[in-house]
Design the sequence.
């Protein structure tokens, strides 16, 4: 042991934990095995062991994950579990922390489909807010299906019955087999680029789960998502739900039901138009009756019966208004003139000129203010005397104080 470092148990366990956590293959691993030693404590967590003929693996599934588990677990049940591997430090053992679990009978293909559906849902392909409404009255309906299948005959029959003469455009594609997904996606793309197509139906008749595989592929789901025209998916029967159904703007249980969604009933539209036309006609007749009644009232009015006399009445009324206006103006002008005269008299009474006219005079230095006391001047100083008429230039001879 010379020079060899001795590790504590926790150090070795932490080292192994880092090794496992850095291994990307163990971060998301699928494991198949038989359940044994299943325990369900009050915490809601599940503890069990997955085993096969040669090995065993401890597993734990926490309550948050096990709550949505649609599976009745029991010892001896063979399952496929997905999760990540980590070491539980207290016991020093590695175990699988399970995120989801399925019966082994589902097969890997079904698990892969569920994983694909979860990924597409995270990307928003199934979001309800992106679903587009179907057109009320489509000019042209696109059909993506097998040209030899019963689904095409059903859709054509229903469409012709509901609205004879409506345009139907077929983009043929096989609906099962290895090439079906590519043909379906290509047919959707062609109809989307064609122009004038208002809604597209993609579908087929019923069949086994394997027969519907083409509609559970990523290429078809993304083709529906990218299509510029609203899409109705009509795949299989009502119990079958494919990726195409989940991505499409509307889902129909059968091709016939899809045709009923897309194509309105011509007779119902005609009846609706008749009702609207009747309402419009009645509304117009009512407005005409109201206008006619108003015209009759105008014709029978006094002005229309004796227009010259009514004109005289109006002129007389205007003359009266004119006289009232003139009288009012004269009253106001007289009152204002009296007020002006009163103000003029008061102003004249207060005027210095009026005082001078009664024999008084104002003595001041030339250009200066009025003198009030004799002490303000000295003998020999020149002063100016302002009379009512004219002025006197004087020299002070003597100053007497009072």
Sequence:
């Amino acid at each position: 042991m010379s020079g060899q470092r001795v590790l504590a148990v926790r150090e070795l366990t932490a080292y192994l934990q880092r090794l496992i956590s850095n291994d990307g293959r163990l971060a998301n691993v699928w494991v198949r095995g038989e359940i044994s030693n299943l325990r369900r404590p009050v915490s809601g967590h599940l503890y069990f062991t997955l085993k096969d003929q040669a090995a065993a693996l401890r597993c734990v599934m926490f309550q948050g994950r096990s709550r949505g588990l649609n599976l009745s677990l029991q010892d001896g049940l063979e399952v496929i579990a997905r999760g990540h591997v980590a070491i539980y430090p207290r016991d020093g053992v590695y175990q699988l922390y399970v995120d989801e679990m399925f019966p082994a009978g589902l097969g890997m293909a079904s698990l892969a489909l569920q994983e694909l559906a979860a990924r597409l849902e995270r990307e928003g392909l199934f979001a309800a807010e992106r679903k587009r409404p179907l057109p009320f009255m489509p000019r042209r309906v696109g059909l993506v299906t097998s040209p030899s299948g019963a689904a095409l005959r059903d859709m054509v029959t229903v469409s012709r019955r509901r609205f004879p003469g409506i345009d139907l455009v077929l983009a043929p594609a096989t609906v099962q087999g290895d090439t079906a997904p590519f043909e379906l996606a290509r047919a959707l793309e062609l109809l989307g680029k064609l122009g004038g197509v208002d809604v597209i139906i993609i579908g087929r008749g019923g069949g086994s789960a394997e027969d519907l595989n083409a509609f559970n592929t990523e290429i078809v789901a993304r083709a529906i998502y990218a299509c510029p025209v609203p899409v109705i998916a009509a795949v299989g029967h009502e119990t079958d739900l494919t990726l195409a159904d989940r991505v499409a703007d509307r889902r129909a249980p059968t091709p016939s039901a899809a045709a009923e969604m897309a194509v309105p009933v011509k007779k119902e539209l005609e009846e609706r138009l008749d009702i609207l036309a009747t309402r419009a006609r009645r509304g117009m007749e009512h407005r005409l009756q109201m206008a006619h009644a108003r015209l009759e009232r105008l014709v029978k009015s006094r002005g229309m019966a004796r227009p010259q006399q009514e004109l005289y009445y109006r002129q007389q009324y205007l003359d009266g208004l004119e006289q009232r206006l003139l009288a009012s103006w004269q009253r106001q002008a007289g009152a204002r003139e009296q007020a002006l005269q009163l103000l003029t008299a008061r102003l004249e009474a207060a005027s210095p000129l009026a005082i001078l006219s009664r024999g008084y005079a104002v003595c001041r230095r030339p250009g200066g203010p009025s003198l009030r006391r004799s002490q303000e001047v000295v003998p020999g100083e020149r002063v100016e005397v302002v009379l009512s008429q004219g002025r006197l230039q004087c020299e002070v001879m003597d100053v007497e104080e009072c």
The first helix runs from residue 9 to 21. The longest strand covers residues 29-39. The two ends are 142 Å apart (CA to CA). The chain has a mean pLDDT of 86.
